Methylglyoxal synthase
Amino acid sequence: MKTVAIIAHNGKKAEMVQFLNNHREALQAKNITLIATGTTGAKTESAGFEVEKLLSGPLGGDAQIASRIAEGKVDMVIFFRDPLDKHPHEPDIFMLMRLCDVHDIPLATNPASARLLMQAF
Ligand SMILES: O=C(CO)COP(=O)(O)O
């Protein structure tokens, strides 16, 4: 079983749901468990996926996922960031991405790279 963390900023949540729908069979076939920041997780659940929901990003959800990465509990991160919006919790976002690099965890920040990573996963 592998764990994939999914996170999407508000302007990218629809793309995340679309991405998951497009990969529904692969997620099942590869026995992937999903964890997510709060609102991303709620949207994911509404689309019919099982997902562990952590706190909403601005309330510490990114930091919780960063902590799971540091503990070696995450195998891949899909984080659809919105580069055209401001985020009050930017330090948490950088921490999450930094810890992916520290621990050599694959990180996709847009659908094109996420598609490639999922193929290889
Ligand atoms: O803010 C986020 C990522 O930085 C996402 O958080 P939500 O999924 O709770 O909207």
